[in-house]
TrEMBL record:
UniProt GO MF annotations: branched-chain amino acid transmembrane transporter activity
Keywords: Cell membrane, Membrane, Transmembrane, Transmembrane helix
One GO CC term on file: plasma membrane
Annotated localization: Cell membrane
Name by which UniProt lists this protein: ABC transporter permease
Domain of life, source organism: Bacteria
Lineage: Bacteria, Pseudomonadati, Pseudomonadota, Alphaproteobacteria, Rhodobacterales
Keyword Metal-binding: no
Spans through the membrane: 49-70, 77-95, 101-119, 126-149, 174-194, 261-285, 297-316
Main localization (coarse): membrane
InterPro entries in the record: ABC_transp_permease, LivM-like
Family annotation (Pfam families): BPD_transp_2
Amino acid sequence: MSDLTATAPGRAAPRMAGRVKAAIILFILFALMPPLASALDDPFYVLIGTRILAYAIAALALDLILGYGAMVSFGHAAYLGFGSYAVAILSSYGINDLGLQLLFGITLSAVFALITGAISLRTQGVYFIMITLAFGQMAFFFFISLSAYGGDDGYGLSERSTLMGIDILQSDFGLYYVTLALLIAMFVLCHRIVMSRFGRVLTGIRENPTRMEAIGYSPFRYQLTAFIISGCITSVAGVLLANQAQFVSPAFMSWHRSGELIVMVVLGGVGTLTGPIGGAVAALLLEEWLGALSEHWRLWFGIFLVLMVLFSPRGITGVLERMGIVRTRQ
């Protein structure tokens, strides 16, 4: 095992460097979006851009466990709900600081992920998918029952959060760049996790859990830790989505939303980190464009997704690899 851990970083370096370069290009393009929107005099691009960035954080978090831990969570949108309702609950008590709301949302998500993950990881395969779906639906119906926060109708926020007492998030441009900064921070965190010994062990468990257990590693502990980290990162996206919409609703945490997150990861490329970010961009832009063309846009989106899976199993990342634009493989 010592030989494996010593040589794995060297073998992985070329493809990880390719992913980092691709991520840097994406972040630069994201940073240019608000000036472009100003030049076109169309603030809609900033609003949809903020939504894309927030979902990119959630897709990135899901890829950490799906792509590197082979854990297909179909209830991951629950953590979006915990993040969004953290904003609503604290705001109702006059606490509007973004840092405190993030801390509260992350804490709720960590506790929920610890409890549900410890139970879910006793199962495998389709049973893991179904039990995470069940826990996600339990959270969904719990927040529907909270009449103090609008129940099924949702809860409107009177204002956006503040950042260390500064109303920077009141501006759409300010919220956009704060969301972009958090996306970059979450990408760096996930990249460091994947490149660390923890990440290599997690990948080894994905490939052969029996062998990893035989040489002294506990798959359950590593997978549970990754599951908790992923849930906490997803809650950050929920806090940002609540601020972007100035509205929270149990719809944030429905099983449909969990399915959309999986689609973003698959569309961008599973186990690539940068792929899910591109997948979030592609999925939400296709939703907007196809929705403007036809009320049956989901049919056309489904056809596109089927073709992508059939002809490029690695998603958009695979297409860019074949074109020689990016390099994520050795």
